[in-house]
């Protein structure tokens, strides 16, 4: 998109000799404006859905039309779950905005990657067990070190493993691997889950992008997890990649430089 200004050009008296044309390429500005308004629309929609549900069930309970305690408990459970979803959504949105504004400087220290993986997977292992999913941790004897923000790296691993559990059917498996190369550390999370269609791979790290809206909502997802992960990885000067085959599984690979500049 071009923003064009044309001004007549005079020289030696009043004869117009030509014109000066100034063109600004505003494609980027327009694109950013469009992304921002899409984001606001998305956030509004994401907030409205649980609020509508909370309001509707609370109204029904207040009207006194609920036949028995079992039904009213069921409605209260929905109200509770939807409030939890709102809470997660707002936490993730604030997190994302802090990372984007770089309002949260990284606390870089020397970090033992194996320890981070062990801690992060402990939180998830109960959910994996409930689905009879086997979690395979890295098979390495020596500690792998990287300069990183401990909490943020924990969050990266946690989000990826949580997704692997969420999008893998019962009795599946998840393999977490760490590899030390000359100048970088590579962490991968592979699952034997449902996989991701090829046409979705490019958009996966966008805010609120989901392959399957219903499934993501059902599993309590906010649609912001991977956007947060990508930002965190990049703020460490690293990269994230995904490979996936529908019906076979997905592998998310995070590469982090060993030392921070
Ligand atoms: P959500 O809260 O929906 O899980 P994410 O940003 O974490 O949001 O992920 C975005 C989408 O990417 C998910 O809705 C899901 O469709 C897809 N996805 C993420 N991880 C996996 C995975 N391991 N296997 C299959 N699909 C995945």
UniProtKB/TrEMBL annotation:
Source species: Jeotgalicoccus coquinae
Locations listed in the record: Cell membrane
Protein name: Sensor protein kinase WalK
Name of encoding gene: phoR_2
Full protein stretch here: 331 to 591 of 591
Chain ranges of the Histidine kinase domain: 42-260
Top-level taxon of origin: Bacteria
